[in-house]
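seq as requested:
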Amino acid sequence: MKINSNNLQKYEKLLHKLPLGIILINMQNKIVSSNQTAERYFNAKATHLIGKDIHEFLENPSTEEVKQLHQQVDKKELLKGTNRKLVTSYSPFLNHHNTLQGVLMLLEPLEKFNQRVSNITESDFYFEIVQELLQTQKNAFRIVMENKDELLSSKQWKAEFDQYNTHIQDWVNQLVYQTIRSRRKRTDSYQPDASLDTIDVFTKPLQKNGKLIGCVQYVTKHENNALKQELDTAKKMIRNLEKTYHLEDIIGETPEINIAREQARLYADMDTPVLIRGEQGTGKLMLARAIHMTSHRKYLPFLKVNSSDLIESNLEELFLKISKKIKNGTVYVNFNQKLTLDYQNKLLAFINEQSTIRFIYGISHTPVISEWSPALYDLLQKYQIILPPLKERLSDLPLLVEAFKIYFNQEYDKQMITVENDVIDYWQKLNWSGNITELKLEVERIILEASSFTSSISLEQLHNKKFIDVSDDENQLSLQQAIDLFEKKYIVKALEQQNFNKTKTAKMLGVSVRNLYYKMEKYKIERGAI
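C-alpha coordinates:
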Protein backbone atom coordinates (compact mmCIF):
# COMPACT_ATOMS: atom_id res chain seq x y z
CA MET A 1 0.00 0.00 0.00
CA LYS A 2 1.47 3.37 -0.99
CA ILE A 3 1.86 5.96 1.74
CA ASN A 4 -0.06 9.15 1.06
CA SER A 5 -2.78 11.15 2.76
CA ASN A 6 -5.45 9.40 0.68
CA ASN A 7 -4.83 6.13 2.57
CA LEU A 8 -5.92 7.81 5.79
CA GLN A 9 -8.76 9.83 4.31
CA LYS A 10 -11.27 7.02 4.87
CA TYR A 11 -10.59 7.10 8.65
CA GLU A 12 -9.86 10.80 8.94
CA LYS A 13 -12.63 11.55 11.43
CA LEU A 14 -11.69 8.58 13.61
CA LEU A 15 -7.98 9.47 13.69
CA HIS A 16 -8.70 13.09 14.61
CA LYS A 17 -10.70 11.92 17.65
CA LEU A 18 -7.92 9.74 19.09
CA PRO A 19 -6.18 11.22 22.18
CA LEU A 20 -2.74 10.30 20.80
CA GLY A 21 -0.84 12.26 18.20
CA ILE A 22 -0.35 10.28 14.99
CA ILE A 23 2.18 11.15 12.29
CA LEU A 24 2.93 9.13 9.18
CA ILE A 25 6.47 9.50 7.82
CA ASN A 26 7.66 8.22 4.45
CA MET A 27 11.01 6.64 3.57
CA GLN A 28 12.52 10.07 2.94
CA ASN A 29 11.61 11.21 6.49
CA LYS A 30 8.93 13.53 5.13
CA ILE A 31 5.63 13.91 7.01
CA VAL A 32 2.79 12.76 4.76
CA SER A 33 -0.12 12.75 7.21
CA SER A 34 -1.05 13.82 10.73
CA ASN A 35 -4.10 13.97 12.96
CA GLN A 36 -5.41 17.00 14.81
CA THR A 37 -3.98 15.82 18.14
CA ALA A 38 -0.43 15.80 16.69
CA GLU A 39 -0.99 19.23 15.17
CA ARG A 40 -2.05 20.50 18.60
CA TYR A 41 1.05 19.04 20.29
CA PHE A 42 3.32 20.45 17.58
CA ASN A 43 1.42 23.74 17.72
CA ALA A 44 1.25 23.75 13.89
CA LYS A 45 -1.45 23.27 11.28
CA ALA A 46 -1.37 20.35 8.86
CA THR A 47 -0.40 22.65 6.00
CA HIS A 48 2.76 23.50 7.92
CA LEU A 49 3.54 19.87 8.80
CA ILE A 50 2.87 18.02 5.55
CA GLY A 51 5.97 17.72 3.37
CA LYS A 52 8.37 18.83 6.11
CA ASP A 53 11.26 16.70 7.37
CA ILE A 54 10.61 15.26 10.82
CA HIS A 55 14.08 16.52 11.86
CA GLU A 56 12.74 20.08 11.68
CA PHE A 57 10.57 19.35 14.72
CA LEU A 58 12.53 16.75 16.72
CA GLU A 59 16.22 16.81 17.61
CA ASN A 60 16.99 13.14 17.11
CA PRO A 61 14.02 11.15 15.70
CA SER A 62 14.45 7.36 15.50
CA THR A 63 13.13 6.93 11.95
CA GLU A 64 16.42 5.59 10.55
CA GLU A 65 16.78 3.07 13.37
CA VAL A 66 13.26 1.76 12.77
CA LYS A 67 13.81 1.50 9.02
CA GLN A 68 17.03 -0.44 9.50
CA LEU A 69 15.96 -2.79 12.31
CA HIS A 70 12.23 -3.06 11.48
CA GLN A 71 11.55 -2.82 15.22
CA GLN A 72 9.50 -0.52 17.42
CA VAL A 73 11.43 2.18 19.27
CA ASP A 74 9.99 4.00 22.32
CA LYS A 75 11.72 7.07 23.72
CA LYS A 76 11.44 10.50 25.31
CA GLU A 77 12.49 13.55 23.33
CA LEU A 78 12.15 17.33 23.13
CA LEU A 79 10.04 19.27 20.68
CA LYS A 80 12.23 21.93 19.04
CA GLY A 81 11.43 25.54 19.88
CA THR A 82 9.30 24.70 22.93
CA ASN A 83 11.40 22.17 24.85
CA ARG A 84 8.17 20.31 25.48
CA LYS A 85 8.82 16.75 26.57
CA LEU A 86 7.15 14.07 24.49
CA VAL A 87 6.85 10.32 24.74
CA THR A 88 7.10 8.88 21.23
CA SER A 89 6.68 5.43 19.79
CA TYR A 90 8.15 4.71 16.34
CA SER A 91 6.94 1.59 14.51
CA PRO A 92 7.60 0.25 11.02
CA PHE A 93 4.61 0.79 8.73
CA LEU A 94 4.17 -2.23 6.46
CA ASN A 95 1.80 -3.00 3.60
CA HIS A 96 -0.05 -6.33 3.30
CA HIS A 97 3.05 -7.82 1.60
CA ASN A 98 5.12 -6.93 4.70
CA THR A 99 7.12 -4.42 2.68
CA LEU A 100 8.32 -1.39 4.61
CA GLN A 101 6.51 1.75 3.49
CA GLY A 102 7.56 4.20 6.16
CA VAL A 103 7.32 4.90 9.90
CA LEU A 104 4.20 5.40 12.01
CA MET A 105 4.85 7.63 15.03
CA LEU A 106 2.54 7.90 18.05
CA LEU A 107 3.22 10.69 20.49
CA GLU A 108 1.85 12.41 23.58
CA PRO A 109 3.16 14.84 26.21
CA LEU A 110 5.17 13.25 29.01
CA GLU A 111 2.78 14.54 31.66
CA LYS A 112 -0.13 12.69 30.06
CA PHE A 113 1.94 9.55 29.70
CA ASN A 114 2.71 9.54 33.43
CA GLN A 115 -1.00 9.64 34.22
CA ARG A 116 -1.57 6.22 32.71
CA VAL A 117 -0.61 3.27 34.84
CA SER A 118 -2.12 0.30 33.05
CA ASN A 119 0.05 -2.71 32.14
CA ILE A 120 -0.77 -2.23 28.50
CA THR A 121 -0.58 1.33 27.29
CA GLU A 122 -3.37 2.91 25.33
CA SER A 123 -0.80 3.77 22.66
CA ASP A 124 -0.38 0.04 21.99
CA PHE A 125 -4.11 -0.29 21.61
CA TYR A 126 -4.50 2.70 19.31
CA PHE A 127 -1.51 1.67 17.25
CA GLU A 128 -3.05 -1.76 16.68
CA ILE A 129 -6.34 -0.09 15.71
CA VAL A 130 -4.72 2.25 13.21
CA GLN A 131 -2.51 -0.47 11.72
CA GLU A 132 -5.43 -2.91 11.36
CA LEU A 133 -7.80 -0.39 9.78
CA LEU A 134 -5.20 0.91 7.36
CA GLN A 135 -4.47 -2.61 6.15
CA THR A 136 -8.03 -3.89 5.87
CA GLN A 137 -9.50 -0.64 4.47
CA LYS A 138 -13.05 -1.65 5.45
CA ASN A 139 -15.80 0.95 5.85
CA ALA A 140 -18.12 -0.97 8.19
CA PHE A 141 -16.12 -1.75 11.35
CA ARG A 142 -16.14 -1.46 15.12
CA ILE A 143 -13.55 -1.75 17.92
CA VAL A 144 -14.35 -3.64 21.13
CA MET A 145 -12.28 -3.50 24.32
CA GLU A 146 -11.08 -6.56 26.24
CA ASN A 147 -13.85 -5.98 28.78
CA LYS A 148 -16.30 -6.31 25.84
CA ASP A 149 -17.28 -2.63 25.87
CA GLU A 150 -17.56 -1.05 22.42
CA LEU A 151 -14.93 1.69 22.01
CA LEU A 152 -16.12 3.04 18.67
CA SER A 153 -17.94 2.04 15.48
CA SER A 154 -18.21 3.53 12.02
CA LYS A 155 -21.42 4.97 10.57
CA GLN A 156 -21.44 2.17 8.01
CA TRP A 157 -21.36 -0.43 10.79
CA LYS A 158 -24.26 1.21 12.59
CA ALA A 159 -26.24 1.55 9.37
CA GLU A 160 -25.71 -2.14 8.63
CA PHE A 161 -26.83 -3.53 12.00
CA ASP A 162 -29.38 -0.96 13.17
CA GLN A 163 -31.81 -2.31 10.57
CA TYR A 164 -31.87 -5.80 12.13
CA ASN A 165 -33.47 -7.09 15.30
CA THR A 166 -31.71 -7.59 18.62
CA HIS A 167 -31.24 -11.28 17.83
CA ILE A 168 -28.74 -10.42 15.07
CA GLN A 169 -26.98 -7.86 17.27
CA ASP A 170 -26.71 -10.38 20.12
CA TRP A 171 -25.25 -12.89 17.67
CA VAL A 172 -22.57 -10.38 16.57
CA ASN A 173 -21.72 -9.69 20.23
CA GLN A 174 -21.39 -13.41 20.86
CA LEU A 175 -18.77 -13.53 18.11
CA VAL A 176 -16.75 -10.96 20.10
CA TYR A 177 -16.99 -13.03 23.29
CA GLN A 178 -15.93 -16.20 21.47
CA THR A 179 -13.01 -14.43 19.76
CA ILE A 180 -11.75 -12.90 23.00
CA ARG A 181 -12.04 -16.27 24.72
CA SER A 182 -10.28 -18.24 21.96
CA ARG A 183 -7.95 -15.43 20.82
CA ARG A 184 -8.38 -16.64 17.26
CA LYS A 185 -9.77 -14.74 14.31
CA ARG A 186 -12.94 -16.05 12.72
CA THR A 187 -15.28 -15.38 9.82
CA ASP A 188 -19.01 -16.01 10.19
CA SER A 189 -21.83 -15.50 7.69
CA TYR A 190 -25.51 -14.84 7.82
CA GLN A 191 -28.29 -14.00 5.37
CA PRO A 192 -30.96 -11.59 6.64
CA ASP A 193 -34.56 -12.47 5.92
CA ALA A 194 -35.85 -11.36 2.52
CA SER A 195 -32.33 -10.41 1.46
CA LEU A 196 -30.35 -11.50 -1.57
CA ASP A 197 -27.05 -10.63 0.09
CA THR A 198 -24.84 -12.72 2.35
CA ILE A 199 -23.03 -10.82 5.12
CA ASP A 200 -19.59 -11.97 6.26
CA VAL A 201 -18.59 -10.83 9.77
CA PHE A 202 -14.84 -10.92 10.34
CA THR A 203 -13.72 -10.80 14.01
CA LYS A 204 -10.03 -10.52 14.84
CA PRO A 205 -8.29 -10.22 18.24
CA LEU A 206 -5.91 -7.29 18.79
CA GLN A 207 -2.82 -8.32 20.73
CA LYS A 208 0.37 -6.64 21.81
CA ASN A 209 3.35 -8.62 23.07
CA GLY A 210 1.10 -11.64 23.50
CA LYS A 211 -1.46 -9.78 25.63
CA LEU A 212 -5.03 -9.30 24.44
CA ILE A 213 -6.10 -5.67 24.22
CA GLY A 214 -9.41 -5.99 22.35
CA CYS A 215 -10.74 -6.99 18.96
CA VAL A 216 -11.88 -5.50 15.67
CA GLN A 217 -14.94 -6.51 13.64
CA TYR A 218 -15.85 -5.59 10.09
CA VAL A 219 -18.39 -6.79 7.55
CA THR A 220 -18.35 -7.59 3.85
CA LYS A 221 -21.41 -8.07 1.66
CA HIS A 222 -21.63 -10.69 -1.08
CA GLU A 223 -24.42 -10.72 -3.63
CA ASN A 224 -26.20 -14.04 -3.91
CA ASN A 225 -25.85 -14.31 -7.69
CA ALA A 226 -27.27 -17.82 -7.82
CA LEU A 227 -30.47 -16.77 -6.05
CA LYS A 228 -30.74 -13.63 -8.15
CA GLN A 229 -30.35 -15.72 -11.27
CA GLU A 230 -33.09 -18.07 -10.10
CA LEU A 231 -35.42 -15.14 -9.42
CA ASP A 232 -34.69 -13.58 -12.81
CA THR A 233 -35.38 -16.94 -14.45
CA ALA A 234 -38.62 -17.31 -12.51
CA LYS A 235 -39.72 -13.86 -13.62
CA LYS A 236 -38.97 -14.71 -17.23
CA MET A 237 -40.87 -18.00 -16.90
CA ILE A 238 -43.89 -16.14 -15.52
CA ARG A 239 -43.72 -13.65 -18.37
CA ASN A 240 -43.46 -16.54 -20.80
CA LEU A 241 -46.56 -18.16 -19.32
CA GLU A 242 -48.34 -14.83 -19.56
CA LYS A 243 -47.04 -14.35 -23.11
CA THR A 244 -45.34 -11.11 -22.07
CA TYR A 245 -41.72 -10.20 -22.73
CA HIS A 246 -39.46 -7.27 -22.00
CA LEU A 247 -36.51 -5.90 -23.92
CA GLU A 248 -34.10 -7.30 -21.33
CA ASP A 249 -35.37 -10.76 -22.31
CA ILE A 250 -33.84 -10.26 -25.76
CA ILE A 251 -30.59 -12.14 -25.27
CA GLY A 252 -27.40 -11.09 -27.06
CA GLU A 253 -24.48 -8.68 -27.06
CA THR A 254 -23.57 -8.49 -30.74
CA PRO A 255 -23.83 -5.06 -32.41
CA GLU A 256 -26.78 -6.22 -34.52
CA ILE A 257 -28.81 -7.28 -31.49
CA ASN A 258 -27.85 -4.16 -29.54
CA ILE A 259 -29.03 -2.01 -32.45
CA ALA A 260 -32.29 -3.96 -32.74
CA ARG A 261 -32.88 -3.64 -29.00
CA GLU A 262 -32.26 0.12 -29.01
CA GLN A 263 -34.45 0.60 -32.09
CA ALA A 264 -37.23 -1.30 -30.33
CA ARG A 265 -36.82 0.89 -27.26
CA LEU A 266 -37.10 4.00 -29.44
CA TYR A 267 -40.06 2.76 -31.49
CA ALA A 268 -41.93 1.60 -28.38
CA ASP A 269 -42.73 5.22 -27.53
CA MET A 270 -44.15 5.83 -31.00
CA ASP A 271 -47.54 4.84 -32.42
CA THR A 272 -46.28 4.42 -35.97
CA PRO A 273 -46.30 0.94 -37.58
CA VAL A 274 -43.04 -1.03 -37.33
CA LEU A 275 -41.80 -3.91 -39.49
CA ILE A 276 -39.65 -6.60 -37.84
CA ARG A 277 -37.69 -8.49 -40.48
CA GLY A 278 -35.88 -11.75 -39.80
CA GLU A 279 -35.77 -15.38 -40.78
CA GLN A 280 -38.13 -17.87 -39.17
CA GLY A 281 -37.01 -18.59 -35.61
CA THR A 282 -35.07 -15.34 -35.03
CA GLY A 283 -37.50 -14.00 -32.41
CA LYS A 284 -39.81 -11.61 -34.26
CA LEU A 285 -42.86 -12.38 -32.15
CA MET A 286 -40.89 -12.08 -28.91
CA LEU A 287 -39.55 -8.67 -29.96
CA ALA A 288 -43.04 -7.53 -30.96
CA ARG A 289 -44.35 -8.46 -27.52
CA ALA A 290 -41.37 -6.68 -25.90
CA ILE A 291 -42.13 -3.49 -27.85
CA HIS A 292 -45.74 -3.71 -26.68
CA MET A 293 -44.69 -4.24 -23.05
CA THR A 294 -42.28 -1.28 -23.21
CA SER A 295 -44.92 1.06 -24.64
CA HIS A 296 -47.72 2.95 -22.90
CA ARG A 297 -50.07 0.19 -24.12
CA LYS A 298 -48.47 -2.53 -21.98
CA TYR A 299 -51.59 -3.00 -19.84
CA LEU A 300 -53.80 -3.32 -22.93
CA PRO A 301 -54.35 -6.43 -25.10
CA PHE A 302 -51.80 -7.85 -27.53
CA LEU A 303 -52.91 -10.07 -30.42
CA LYS A 304 -50.94 -11.92 -33.07
CA VAL A 305 -52.57 -12.53 -36.45
CA ASN A 306 -50.97 -14.61 -39.19
CA SER A 307 -51.58 -13.74 -42.81
CA SER A 308 -52.67 -17.36 -43.23
CA ASP A 309 -55.46 -16.66 -40.72
CA LEU A 310 -56.79 -13.97 -43.09
CA ILE A 311 -57.05 -16.49 -45.89
CA GLU A 312 -58.62 -19.16 -43.71
CA SER A 313 -61.15 -16.90 -41.95
CA ASN A 314 -64.14 -14.74 -42.73
CA LEU A 315 -62.42 -11.36 -43.02
CA GLU A 316 -65.37 -9.29 -41.82
CA GLU A 317 -65.82 -11.42 -38.71
CA LEU A 318 -62.07 -11.47 -38.02
CA PHE A 319 -61.69 -7.69 -38.42
CA LEU A 320 -64.73 -7.07 -36.21
CA LYS A 321 -63.30 -9.35 -33.53
CA ILE A 322 -59.94 -7.57 -33.64
CA SER A 323 -61.43 -4.07 -33.46
CA LYS A 324 -63.56 -4.99 -30.43
CA LYS A 325 -61.03 -7.12 -28.55
CA ILE A 326 -57.86 -5.09 -29.16
CA LYS A 327 -59.17 -1.56 -28.87
CA ASN A 328 -56.23 0.70 -27.92
CA GLY A 329 -53.94 -2.35 -27.82
CA THR A 330 -51.35 -3.80 -30.23
CA VAL A 331 -51.84 -6.17 -33.17
CA TYR A 332 -48.87 -8.10 -34.54
CA VAL A 333 -49.47 -9.13 -38.16
CA ASN A 334 -47.11 -11.93 -39.16
CA PHE A 335 -46.82 -12.37 -42.92
CA ASN A 336 -46.18 -16.10 -42.79
CA GLN A 337 -47.96 -16.66 -46.11
CA LYS A 338 -48.10 -14.59 -49.28
CA LEU A 339 -51.29 -12.54 -49.70
CA THR A 340 -52.94 -11.67 -52.97
CA LEU A 341 -53.33 -7.99 -53.80
CA ASP A 342 -57.06 -8.25 -52.99
CA TYR A 343 -56.33 -9.47 -49.47
CA GLN A 344 -53.60 -6.86 -49.07
CA ASN A 345 -55.97 -4.05 -50.00
CA LYS A 346 -58.63 -5.32 -47.59
CA LEU A 347 -56.05 -5.56 -44.80
CA LEU A 348 -54.78 -2.06 -45.56
CA ALA A 349 -58.32 -0.65 -45.53
CA PHE A 350 -58.90 -2.21 -42.09
CA ILE A 351 -55.58 -0.85 -40.79
CA ASN A 352 -56.41 2.68 -41.96
CA GLU A 353 -59.78 2.53 -40.15
CA GLN A 354 -58.15 1.69 -36.77
CA SER A 355 -56.93 4.96 -35.29
CA THR A 356 -56.49 3.58 -31.76
CA ILE A 357 -54.69 0.30 -32.51
CA ARG A 358 -50.91 0.00 -32.83
CA PHE A 359 -49.76 -2.33 -35.63
CA ILE A 360 -46.46 -4.22 -35.73
CA TYR A 361 -45.58 -6.43 -38.70
CA GLY A 362 -43.29 -9.40 -39.10
CA ILE A 363 -41.80 -10.88 -42.25
CA SER A 364 -39.03 -13.39 -42.92
CA HIS A 365 -37.61 -11.83 -46.08
CA THR A 366 -37.08 -8.44 -47.71
CA PRO A 367 -40.36 -7.24 -49.26
CA VAL A 368 -40.29 -7.22 -53.08
CA ILE A 369 -42.22 -4.24 -54.41
CA SER A 370 -43.77 -6.21 -57.28
CA GLU A 371 -45.48 -8.55 -54.79
CA TRP A 372 -47.09 -5.81 -52.71
CA SER A 373 -49.78 -3.19 -52.95
CA PRO A 374 -47.88 0.12 -53.32
CA ALA A 375 -49.62 1.67 -50.30
CA LEU A 376 -48.98 -1.35 -48.06
CA TYR A 377 -45.40 -1.59 -49.33
CA ASP A 378 -44.77 2.05 -48.39
CA LEU A 379 -46.29 1.42 -44.96
CA LEU A 380 -43.90 -1.48 -44.33
CA GLN A 381 -40.84 0.51 -45.39
CA LYS A 382 -41.18 3.38 -42.91
CA TYR A 383 -39.67 1.85 -39.76
CA GLN A 384 -37.82 -1.46 -39.78
CA ILE A 385 -35.98 -3.58 -37.25
CA ILE A 386 -33.76 -6.35 -38.63
CA LEU A 387 -33.10 -9.48 -36.58
CA PRO A 388 -30.03 -11.33 -37.88
CA PRO A 389 -30.04 -15.12 -38.32
CA LEU A 390 -28.24 -17.11 -35.64
CA LYS A 391 -25.39 -17.98 -38.03
CA GLU A 392 -24.53 -14.26 -38.19
CA ARG A 393 -24.44 -13.83 -34.39
CA LEU A 394 -22.72 -17.01 -33.23
CA SER A 395 -20.87 -15.14 -30.48
CA ASP A 396 -24.28 -14.87 -28.76
CA LEU A 397 -24.77 -18.64 -28.87
CA PRO A 398 -23.21 -19.33 -25.42
CA LEU A 399 -25.51 -16.73 -23.84
CA LEU A 400 -28.56 -18.25 -25.51
CA VAL A 401 -27.58 -21.77 -24.48
CA GLU A 402 -27.07 -20.66 -20.87
CA ALA A 403 -30.49 -19.00 -20.79
CA PHE A 404 -32.21 -22.07 -22.28
CA LYS A 405 -30.33 -24.35 -19.88
CA ILE A 406 -31.55 -22.40 -16.86
CA TYR A 407 -35.10 -22.27 -18.23
CA PHE A 408 -35.39 -26.00 -18.96
CA ASN A 409 -33.71 -26.94 -15.67
CA GLN A 410 -36.62 -25.17 -14.01
CA GLU A 411 -39.15 -26.59 -16.46
CA TYR A 412 -38.11 -30.25 -16.05
CA ASP A 413 -36.56 -30.10 -12.56
CA LYS A 414 -33.08 -31.02 -13.80
CA GLN A 415 -29.64 -30.02 -12.50
CA MET A 416 -27.69 -29.37 -15.70
CA ILE A 417 -24.87 -27.12 -14.51
CA THR A 418 -22.38 -26.72 -17.35
CA VAL A 419 -22.10 -26.94 -21.11
CA GLU A 420 -18.76 -28.32 -22.28
CA ASN A 421 -16.67 -26.06 -24.51
CA ASP A 422 -16.57 -28.75 -27.21
CA VAL A 423 -20.36 -28.51 -27.45
CA ILE A 424 -20.29 -24.74 -27.92
CA ASP A 425 -17.52 -25.07 -30.53
CA TYR A 426 -19.51 -27.72 -32.40
CA TRP A 427 -22.74 -25.71 -32.31
CA GLN A 428 -20.96 -22.58 -33.56
CA LYS A 429 -19.98 -24.47 -36.70
CA LEU A 430 -23.58 -25.38 -37.62
CA ASN A 431 -25.82 -23.48 -40.02
CA TRP A 432 -28.93 -23.35 -37.77
CA SER A 433 -31.54 -22.91 -40.49
CA GLY A 434 -34.20 -22.85 -37.78
CA ASN A 435 -32.23 -20.19 -35.89
CA ILE A 436 -32.92 -19.62 -32.16
CA THR A 437 -36.02 -21.82 -32.18
CA GLU A 438 -33.98 -24.77 -33.45
CA LEU A 439 -31.28 -24.17 -30.83
CA LYS A 440 -33.90 -23.92 -28.09
CA LEU A 441 -35.50 -27.20 -29.13
CA GLU A 442 -32.09 -28.91 -29.20
CA VAL A 443 -31.23 -27.75 -25.68
CA GLU A 444 -34.69 -28.82 -24.50
CA ARG A 445 -34.25 -32.28 -26.04
CA ILE A 446 -30.89 -32.82 -24.38
CA ILE A 447 -32.04 -31.69 -20.93
CA LEU A 448 -35.29 -33.63 -21.13
CA GLU A 449 -33.50 -36.83 -22.17
CA ALA A 450 -30.72 -36.44 -19.59
CA SER A 451 -30.83 -38.45 -16.37
CA SER A 452 -31.26 -36.77 -13.02
CA PHE A 453 -27.56 -37.36 -12.33
CA THR A 454 -26.30 -35.65 -15.49
CA SER A 455 -24.78 -32.25 -14.73
CA SER A 456 -23.06 -31.38 -18.01
CA ILE A 457 -24.04 -31.21 -21.69
CA SER A 458 -21.47 -33.15 -23.71
CA LEU A 459 -20.86 -33.97 -27.38
CA GLU A 460 -22.04 -37.52 -26.69
CA GLN A 461 -25.49 -36.21 -25.78
CA LEU A 462 -25.63 -34.12 -28.95
CA HIS A 463 -25.30 -37.17 -31.15
CA ASN A 464 -27.34 -39.49 -28.91
CA LYS A 465 -30.67 -39.25 -30.78
CA LYS A 466 -31.40 -42.97 -30.82
CA PHE A 467 -34.33 -44.64 -29.07
CA ILE A 468 -34.09 -44.96 -25.31
CA ASP A 469 -32.66 -48.05 -23.68
CA VAL A 470 -35.36 -49.55 -21.45
CA SER A 471 -32.77 -51.58 -19.56
CA ASP A 472 -31.87 -48.44 -17.62
CA ASP A 473 -35.27 -46.84 -17.55
CA GLU A 474 -34.94 -45.45 -14.04
CA ASN A 475 -32.46 -42.87 -15.31
CA GLN A 476 -34.14 -42.36 -18.71
CA LEU A 477 -37.35 -40.79 -19.94
CA SER A 478 -40.64 -42.24 -18.96
CA LEU A 479 -42.70 -43.66 -21.81
CA GLN A 480 -45.06 -40.67 -21.69
CA GLN A 481 -42.17 -38.20 -21.76
CA ALA A 482 -40.70 -39.91 -24.82
CA ILE A 483 -44.07 -39.90 -26.59
CA ASP A 484 -44.67 -36.23 -25.77
CA LEU A 485 -41.21 -35.21 -26.98
CA PHE A 486 -41.63 -37.09 -30.25
CA GLU A 487 -45.13 -35.67 -30.82
CA LYS A 488 -44.01 -32.10 -30.15
CA LYS A 489 -41.07 -32.30 -32.56
CA TYR A 490 -43.24 -34.00 -35.18
CA ILE A 491 -45.88 -31.24 -34.98
CA VAL A 492 -43.23 -28.48 -35.14
CA LYS A 493 -41.69 -30.11 -38.21
CA ALA A 494 -45.10 -30.35 -39.89
CA LEU A 495 -45.91 -26.71 -39.12
CA GLU A 496 -42.57 -25.61 -40.57
CA GLN A 497 -43.22 -27.63 -43.75
CA GLN A 498 -46.64 -25.97 -44.13
CA ASN A 499 -45.29 -22.51 -43.24
CA PHE A 500 -47.43 -22.58 -40.08
CA ASN A 501 -50.69 -22.85 -42.01
CA LYS A 502 -52.85 -24.67 -39.46
CA THR A 503 -55.46 -25.90 -41.93
CA LYS A 504 -52.87 -27.53 -44.18
CA THR A 505 -50.88 -28.84 -41.20
CA ALA A 506 -53.95 -30.42 -39.61
CA LYS A 507 -54.85 -32.05 -42.92
CA MET A 508 -51.28 -33.35 -43.29
CA LEU A 509 -51.33 -34.80 -39.76
CA GLY A 510 -54.83 -36.22 -40.15
CA VAL A 511 -56.31 -34.30 -37.19
CA SER A 512 -58.87 -31.54 -36.84
CA VAL A 513 -57.74 -27.90 -36.70
CA ARG A 514 -59.20 -27.69 -33.21
CA ASN A 515 -57.15 -30.70 -32.09
CA LEU A 516 -54.03 -29.16 -33.63
CA TYR A 517 -54.57 -25.96 -31.64
CA TYR A 518 -54.97 -28.05 -28.48
CA LYS A 519 -51.65 -29.83 -29.14
CA MET A 520 -49.91 -26.51 -29.81
CA GLU A 521 -51.17 -25.12 -26.51
CA LYS A 522 -50.15 -28.31 -24.67
CA TYR A 523 -46.58 -28.22 -25.98
CA LYS A 524 -46.30 -24.41 -25.89
CA ILE A 525 -45.78 -24.12 -29.64
CA GLU A 526 -46.35 -20.56 -30.81
CA ARG A 527 -49.17 -20.15 -33.28
CA GLY A 528 -47.01 -18.78 -36.05
CA ALA A 529 -43.40 -18.14 -36.97
CA ILE A 530 -41.44 -17.50 -33.81
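The radius of gyration is 36 Å.
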